[in-house]
Amino acid sequence: MTSPAIPDPHRLSAATLAALPPEVEVPGYDRAATRVGIVHFGAGSFHRAHQAAYVDALLASDPNWAICAVSLHSTGVRDALRPQDGLYTLALLDAQPRLRVIGAIAEVLCARDQGAAVMARLADPQVRLVTLTITEKGYCLSADGVDAAHPDIVRDLATPDVPVSAIGWLAEGLRLRRARGVAPFTVLSCDNLADNGGRLRSAVLDYTRRLDPALADWIAREVSFPRSMVDSITPATDDALRARVATALGVADAWPVQREPYTQWVVEDDFRHGRPALEQVGVVMSGDIAGYDRAKLRLLNAPHSALAYLGALLELETVAEAMRHPVLAGFVEQLMRRDIVPSLVLPDRFDPDAYVDAILQRFGNPAIRHLLLQIAWDGSQKLPVRLLDTIAEALAAGRSIERLCLPLAGWMHFVRRQARRGVALVDPLGDELAAIGRAATGDAAHDVPAFLRLPAVLAPLAADARFVDAMQQSYAALGDASPAAVSNALAAADPR
Ligand code: CS2
């Protein structure tokens, strides 16, 4: 990474690294000797707090896997990290917080205005792995391939050599490698989607088949898309963190990140052209990760979303606060133990009770200010992958879905409340949802069907009369969605 001509003595950078106080952990390897071996799409906080921290540990023994971090659209991370030579601080939040400077990111680019540099990295034979954290919506998925009506995909299919979507970048990078006789990179999705690798593979194949069937065949034969499960609670960066880091370091860091100390990364061991020795830095390499990703999505992410919407209606601010609310915390625990665990097919030797205990403890960590409104983002994308399979399986097994429907009804009331307050939703379907929210009357028979008509959100169950009934009952049970009404509904849904 090119440093500014005169390094800022008041800013974290390669030049100021050596003078940091000894209690701040710094990269223990020679950064100048590392080489970029990974291109990562989605340079946001989760990547920098999670995968980049593993890679930082790995670089101590193998210099070949430094990261070129790419933001697809926004220039913020690049502009913050460039003057810092890619360095940033990771705060591990616990009773005794720890600070660690991460050196794994050797280059940071914004694809929108540095397309040629991104493409050069994707075509570089030294790059053997492309990882992604682009959030659920970034995949532009349809039920079994790519959403060919998505504006970014429409655009990329028309001009595939100047892509804007992650799928378009992957396809163009792989096309170039094939044309140049370079072995393909492995594509590793690190987002919270069940079968993330499989779904990304289907989307890339569907996309390339529309452009170049021979390329699609080559990708199908030659490229692996391992599945992975990622887990670490990562609250968004705020000014309090920036101030804390600046005080501890003695220099400013424009974009530190923070997470809980707990972290897990399970990766399916399917790499055709070499891979980093991830198992040496705490990654679980596994033959079958489906059990892990199901357990995590259903037992951590689904309860998180339940806390987010129901907690927001209760006028609570953070997850830890929601876990201290006697009725909400009890409800969510019952949801996990009585409704979600029974539907799970678990990996061998996986103890669901211990897993639930650990998650409840993590949610309650008082050292973390994890805003419910952050988790509430993108509900139209998150809720289906977190809750719908559990509900479908409960219906098939003849179990009650009463408690499982309450978080969904909570989301609908939340959408309505934000519309009435004039607060914009962070959601790719924000406009459609705001229109439904504004037209909502509070009457379940009127409001619920409007949400169910949205394509691709609750659509897979929208024709099931048992689901529609249960949703209307849950929505009605939440009444006017005031804190008192929500508390009553949650207490009534808890049979203890
Ligand atoms: C959260 C996740 O924001 C959210 O939707 O549920 O980001 C969650 O914190 C992580 O998946 C934990 O690994």
Give a brief outline of the structure.
The chain is α/β, with parallel strands linked by helices and 496 residues long. Helix content is 47%, strand content 10%.
Structural commentary:
With 496 residues, the chain is an alpha/beta fold. It has 2 domains: 17-287, NAD(P)-binding Rossmann-like Domain (Rossmann fold); 290-493, Orthogonal Bundle (N-(1-d-carboxylethyl)-l-norvaline Dehydrogenase, domain 2). The protein contains 21 helices and 11 strands. A 5-stranded parallel β-sheet has the order 5-2-1-6-7, with helices on both faces. A 3-stranded mixed β-sheet has the order 4-3-9, sandwiched between helices. A hairpin with a 5-residue loop joins strand 3 (88-92) and strand 4 (98-102). Helix 8 packs antiparallel against helix 9, helix 11 (290-313) packs across helix 16 and helix 19 crosses helix 20 (465-477). The protein is globular, with a radius of gyration of 23 Å. The chain starts with 13 loop residues before the first helix and ends with a helix. The relative contact order is 0.09. The mean pLDDT is 96. The structure holds D-mannonic acid.
Defining key terms:
496 residues; alpha/beta; Rossmann fold; N-(1-d-carboxylethyl)-l-norvaline Dehydrogenase, domain 2; 2 domains; five-stranded parallel β-sheet; 21 helices; 11 strands; 47% helix; globular; binds D-mannonic acid
